[in-house]
Amino acid sequence: MLQKEKTKRKLLLGHSGRESMRRAGRFNAELMDHLRELVGPGVTTQEIDDRVVSYTKKHGHKAATLGYLGFSKSCCTSINEVICHGIPDKTVLKEGDIVNVDITSVVDGWHGDQSETFIIGNASEEARAVTQAAFDCMHLAIEALTPGCMVSVIGDAIVAEAHARGFSVVREYVGHGLGQVFHQPPNIPHFPDRKSRSQRLLPGMCFTVEPMINAGTRFAQLDKQDGWTVRTKDRKLSAQFEHTVLMTEDGPEILTLTEHGPRRGHKF
Ligand code: MF3
Ligand code: CO
Ligand code: CO
C-alpha cells in the first residue's frame, strides 16, 4: 500500500512513465482539437462539458476534474473576468467573449492537462491583447527551460513579459507537477518566489505551465456561492493558456501540442 502510494507520486519518470505521459498528453490534445470545432457563439459551456464527457468516454478514458474535490463537471470554462475554475452551465457564449477551456484527461492512470483561451467572434482590443499576452508568456516560459534549471525561470520570464505589456500575473493559482497524480510537487508559480529559486526541474519531471494574466489588478476573488469560480477582483479580463511539459535530457518537451490550435508565434 505504502509502496503503491510512493510509485504514484514518483517525480522522476523513466522511459515507460514518460511514454505513458506522452500518451495522456496526446489524447488530451486530441480532445482539445475536437472541442475546437464546437466552441463559438451560441454554444453553452454545458454543451462543451457534454462534448468532453462523450469524447472521453468513447475513447475509454476519464476526466480528472469530475468529482475532484467535489467539482461536478468534466472541464473548466472561464469566461471574461473569470480567472479559472469556471463551472460549465447554461451560460451561452456570445460574440466578444473570451473563454478559457481547461481539460484534464486520465489515460491508463496518467494525466494530461491543458487549456486554451478562445476568442468568440470579434472581441475588444483589450481582450485580444490579454489573450495574446497569456499565450506568449506561456511559450516564453517554456522556451526558457533547460535541463536542471530553477523553477523560477518560469516566473521570471512570465512576470517580465506581462508587466512589459501593462498586465498583471495571478499568484494565488499556480502550475503543478503531474503524473499518476493530478496535482503533485513541484508547485510551478508564474512569478518568482523563494522556493522556486531553490528548486530544480530535472530530466524526468512532468509539470504544467499555465499562466493566468489579468488586464487590471492581479488580485483574485473566490465565488462564495459555488466555492469554485475565481474572478478578478476588479472584474477586468483574465486569460490563460496551459501545457503539460516533460523535462528531458535535451530540454523541455510539450506533451499537449494540438494539431489545429495556435502554435508558438501565433497572432490572435
Ligand atoms: N485543470 C486545472 C489545472 O490546470 C485544475 C482544475 S481542478 C477543478 O490544474 F476541480 F477545478 F476542475
Ligand atoms: Co494544471
Ligand atoms: Co488545467
Short description:
This protein has 268 residues and is of the alpha+beta class. The chain has helices at residues 2-8, 15-36, 45-58, 125-143, 152-164; strands spanning 62-63, 76-79, 82-84, 98-107, 110-119, 149-150, 168-169, 175-177, 184-188, 200-201, 206-209, 212-214, 220-222, 230-232, 238-240, 243-248, 251-254. The strands form six sheets. Strands 1, 2, 4 and 5 form a four-stranded antiparallel β-sheet that branches. Strands 3-14-13 form a three-stranded antiparallel β-sheet, with no helix packed on it.
Q: What are the main properties of this structure?
A:
5 helices, binds cobalt (II) ion, 17 strands, alpha+beta, 28% helix, 268 residues, binds 2-amino-4-trifluoromethylsulfanyl-butyric acid, globular, three-stranded antiparallel sheet, Creatine Amidinohydrolase
Question: What string gives the helices and strands in order?
Answer: HHHEEEEEHEHEEEEEEEEEEE
Q: Total strand count, please?
A: 17
Approximate strand percentage = 25-35%
Radius of gyration: 17 Å
Bound chemical compounds: 2-amino-4-trifluoromethylsulfanyl-butyric acid, cobalt (II) ion
What is the tally of helical segments? Answer: 5
When the domains are counted, the total is: 1
The quaternary structure here is single chain
- Provide mean pLDDT, rounded: 97
